[in-house]
Design goal:
mainly beta; five-stranded antiparallel sheet; five-stranded mixed sheet
């Protein structure tokens, strides 16, 4: 005796359905006995014919008959009221899985209304997987990810924090102001970056400045605090640093004149730089020989601009705070530091011991020519307040020698990042770019979703099925075995949870829907179980609009190509059947956001070419 399935929807106020097994030879009453022993609120159709309740005990469905069981409300004028509610909803919403987002007492009438809304004015494919993606390289200043070729590091206070989805070369914003520091006469740049919310795996061997790996530079230090396997903690950028280009000439004695600059409030320590832009040298007037010369500089600090002033003591004793001696005609820079007894806003003043008080004259007597023009160039204020207060933010710090290597502070630092998320099918933490894992993480993670869902609000089996669907193994053009569907993107722009999860799902022929409060993934693939039968016997008043667009020769698809981790914007032409470079002229453009493999782009384009022919 064979077993068959019936589509059952016993609750008239819910749209979810179950499949109920029935045996060949059973009556309708036998089929219903486990659902509702009294059959009081159930209506049954065999194909397109309704079975009246008085015949439930004698009608036996034939094998392979489509059996549909629907619950209806009971009592009074409930059917009429719900029908009007459903009509109002139909006017303002699009139809969802199963024909509509609502249920009336007349399920056949509801299905007819839903079908009319579905096809009028749009392609059938758009009901499940609409092509609606942000533009690549759209010139927006909001997003760095969508214009990867021109991405720059930048300060973005109160702006969007990255969300790394899958595997991506990220150009992160600065987490705090970058600054420079002098060690001896060598200058170093220190930068702190915010990569997104933890956990993120960062490859320290694949951090780039522009197009060059950091391994090609000298004296580079990298620290990570991202929740990944390469974490070291952040110590190079401790607290908050405020760099202020003072740029003031240091006057000379004996006049009561000073170069004065002020720190930011709550400063605990400072570093400062004294620059000699034309060098520091003495030239003998009679033979032109170059000799060393010395400039002594005193530095004082005070909480008030009016004093009293406290001189910073010389580090090695002596009368002057700093004694600088050199013989050079090129830029000379000297850096120093001082720690205050307590945090406050401090004033810093400087004065040199040379006669030319404004620092601009070279000749100090009738003898040699002395070049000693000097500037209080940079003042940095430090305090111990954390630069980033949220411990869940993934941070990366880079300290690199700038002397003879860099021109200014780098603003094209990028890092190869991988999202660490619960990965299917068992949802164990690991790096993943599987669309099912990414969607499930976005819906449930409290860091990136202010209204994160508990797992019991998910149809978890649909996510497992989708994970397996995406993880089908295929061989790419390079002969490698890879997962069939992946998603890779860095979200750094304003969007919504619903739009993002469906952006991910559509790259793998699926859609995410909320049905009766439960989120599930629906894959656009052949179905084996009929849901309902429509015919002239049970439907009427249906109208359909069908468009016949001009057939195209192919798609031009723009995408970010991650081959060999290059992450460059590329375009691939996908031809229709029978078309090639020699006989094609009519193309339409698509943008595949999140699809980063050329083979996947070809599959994506071929699918939509089929859609344009088979589901116009």
């Amino acid at each position: 005796m064979s077993t068959h399935l019936a589509t059952v929807q016993t609750n008239p106020f819910r749209v979810d359905r179950i499949l109920h097994q029935w045996q060949e030879g059973e009556t309708v009453a036998d089929i219903l006995k486990d659902l509702d022993p009294h059959h009081t609120n159930l209506r049954v159709w065999l194909g397109d014919i309704e079975v009246l309740p008085e015949y439930f005990h004698v009608v036996r469905p034939k094998p392979n008959t489509v059996v549909v069981v629907k619950g209806v409300p009971e009592g009074g004028d409930a059917l009429r009221s719900i029908a009007f509610i459903a009509l109002a909803v139909a006017i303002t919403t699009v139809t969802g899985p199963g024909g509509s987002l609502f249920l009336t007492a007349n399920p056949l009438g509801t299905a007819a209304i839903g079908a009319g809304l579905l096809v009028a004015g749009s392609l059938a494919i758009n009901a499940l997987i609409p092509i609606d993606s942000p533009e690549l390289d759209n010139g927006s200043t909001e997003s760095q990810a969508l214009s990867i070729g021109g991405a720059r590091n930048r300060l973005n206070p109160f702006g969007n924090l990255n969300t790394v989805l899958g595997f991506y070369q990220v150009t992160p914003p600065y987490a705090a102001r970058p600054y420079t520091e002098l060690v001896g006469e060598d200058q170093y740049v220190v930068m702190l970056f915010a990569l997104g919310f933890k956990d993120i795996e960062v490859d320290p061997d694949y951090i780039k400045i522009g197009t060059s790996l950091t391994s090609t530079y000298d004296e580079v230090e990298i620290e990570l605090d991202t929740g990944g396997s390469a974490d070291t903690g952040i110590s190079l950028y401790a607290g908050q640093v405020f760099e202020d280009p003072a740029g003031k000439i240091i006057p000379g004695e004996p006049d009561n004149d000073y170069a004065i600059h002020t720190t930011v409030p709550d400063t605990e320590r400072i570093t400062y730089e004294i620059h000699f832009p034309r060098g520091l040298i003495k030239l003998e007037h009679n033979d032109g020989k170059q000799r060393k010369t010395t400039v002594n500089i005193n530095v004082w600090v005070s909480e008030s601009s009016q004093g009293p002033w406290t001189k910073i003591p010389p580090p090695f004793g002596g009368e002057y705070t700093h004694t600088i001696q050199a013989r050079t005609t090129v830029l000379l820079r000297k850096g120093f530091r001082y720690t205050f007894p307590y945090a406050s806003q401090w004033h810093v003043r400087m004065q040199a011991d040379v006669i030319n008080k404004d620092g601009t004259q070279n000749t100090i007597d009738q003898g040699p020519v002395v070049i000693n023009q000097r500037f209080f160039q940079i003042l940095r204020s430090y305090n111990s307040d954390p630069s980033v207060t949220d411990p869940n933010v993934a941070l990366a710090c880079l300290r690199i020698k700038a002397s003879d290597q860099l021109s200014g502070i780098p603003n094209q630092v990028s890092m190869y990042c991988q999202s660490i998320i619960p990965d299917g099918p068992s949802w164990v933490e690991g790096v993943s770019n599987n669309p099912a894992s990414l969607i499930r993480w976005i819906l449930t993670d409290t860091n990136i979703n202010a209204r994160a869902l508990p797992v019991n609000r998910l149809d978890d089996q649909s996510f497992v099925d989708f994970w397996n669907y995406c993880n089908q193994q295929v061989v790419n053009s390079a002969g490698q075995t890879v997962a069939k569907y992946t998603f890779n993107q860095n979200i750094d722009f304003n969007t919504t949870i619903t739009k993002t999860v469906n952006q991910i799902a559509r790259t793998a022929n699926a859609r995410v829907e909320q049905i009766d409060g439960i989120w599930k993934v629906m894959i656009d693939q052949p179905q084996t179980i009929p849901r309902q039968v429509f015919s002239p016997r049970n439907s009427w008043g249906m109208s359909v609009t069908k468009s016949f667009p001009e057939k195209i020769d192919g798609f031009r698809i723009r995408f970010i190509d991650d081959t060999d981790r290059k992450f460059t914007q590329e375009e691939r032409i996908v031809y229709a059947d029978g078309k090639n470079v020699d006989n094609s002229s009519l193309f339409e453009s698509l943008e595949a956001v999140g699809i980063t493999r050329p083979d996947s782009i070809y599959r994506y384009g071929r699918r939509y070419l089929a859609v344009s022919v088979l589901q116009p």
